Structures are given as structure tokens and as C-alpha cells.
Amino acid sequence: MNFKVNPIFENSTESILKTIKMFNVKGELFGNGDRNKIKLFDLNGKAINIKSFKVPNLINKVAYRYFRKSKAMRSFEYATILLQKGIGTPEPIAFLENFSILGLKDSYYVSEHLNVDLTYRELVEIPDFPDRENILRQFTKFSFDLHEKGIEFLDHSPGNTLIKKNASGNYDFFLVDLNRMEFHNSMSFEMRMKNLCRLTPLEEMVATMSNEYAKYYNEPEEKIFVTLWKYTSDFQENFYRKKRLKKKLKFWKK
């Protein structure tokens, strides 16, 4: 077993480990749990969530044991880095890896549970969401700040940014699902645009984001829009092509 706790929570080490070990029999299920399962728990009066990652296949069992960091470890480490860089994410609490002779058996990531107002997804799915354009523009500035700090969030998709209105009436943003991330000294224009292409299929949202991004970046708004819309369109086309292919494969399996 490999178990690490955030120094802030060292006094709760035993309670955290005990809670993880009760994952399969206690806790409130959060979300659909299609791939990875998340459950909510109480830790000394603090709401936390524990993410149990899908059991890896045989090749990955070995890889995560000897060659690569597990998703749980990466989530914990990346959350720590994000907070150090001033980027919002739920407070990392701990991670645990269990090993067998074959390699990694199961793994868990423990973090603070945040009650938020929405995710980016609501901005896509609800055109008349209250204060929608303002939220979208503040989100774009948040994404620009990520890029300026060299943070390439590879799962920068609609459900992975939590959004909460703060006391001043502005919005705070928190990244989740952190196990795929890269850090750079700087990010090129192409990298920045590709990083934003998975967020929305709506041209009007891309136009608003391009307009806002251009306020902070030294490229014309038109170039930003044309480039971002091209990458967005390419991503959407590939996404639905794969979806159609999976549907056909499932048909033949039947």
C-alpha cells in the first residue's frame, strides 16, 4: 500500500485511511459512476469526496506499479501544484494505492468537496442561464491565466470546471478531474487554442471567448476566432465520428 496525506490533514490521518477502507460499504454516491466512482463522506465535520479509479487492465496494472504514476497520485500532485500556482481546485487531502503481485490493484484520491453553483456545461446547455455571458468571459480570463502560467489542462472539457459565485458578485473557478495535465515554461498560440477546443460546439460561445481572449493576448480577435473555431469544428467532427463507429461496433456485437 502507498498512502500519502496532505500535511494540513496529518492529524486526521487515521480517520482518512479508515474512511477510504469503508469506501465500498459506506458513503453517498456522487454522479453516475460510469468509469470512476465518487462518494461523499464526512471527515470531522468537513465534506470530502473520495474518487475510486477504475481497476486498470493488466498492462496498466504493471505500468502504474513500475513505470508511471497512478491517476490517484497524479491527481494529488497536480492539485498541489495548481494551488501553489494560484489556480482553484478542491483542496487535496490524500491518495492511496493498493498493490498486488501483478501491480496496481485499486487507487483512491481524496479531496475537499465543494458546493458550487454550476459547471461550464450549464453555459452550453442552457442558453438563457443567468449572467451567462459574464460568466463565460470570466471563465475565458481564467483559462488565459492558466495558459500564462504554462498549465495545459488536457481534460479542459465542459464538466471539469466548477463555478461558484463569490461575495463580490464575481465568479471563482475550480478545476477537477486532474490526472491529465502538463506544465510548460510557456504555451504557443496553437497550444492555447487547441486547449480550448473541447469546451463548446456553439459558434456564438466561441466568438465570445475569442473576443475576451483577445483583450489579454497579442493576437487579433479574428485570428483567435478562426483558429479556435477550426480546432473546435475538427474536435466535434472527430468526436461524432468515433461515436458513430462505436455504435456500429456495438450493433455487430449484437
TrEMBL record:
Domain of life from the UniProt record: Bacteria
Protein name, per record: Lipopolysaccharide kinase (Kdo/WaaP) family protein
Gene source species: Flavobacterium anhuiense
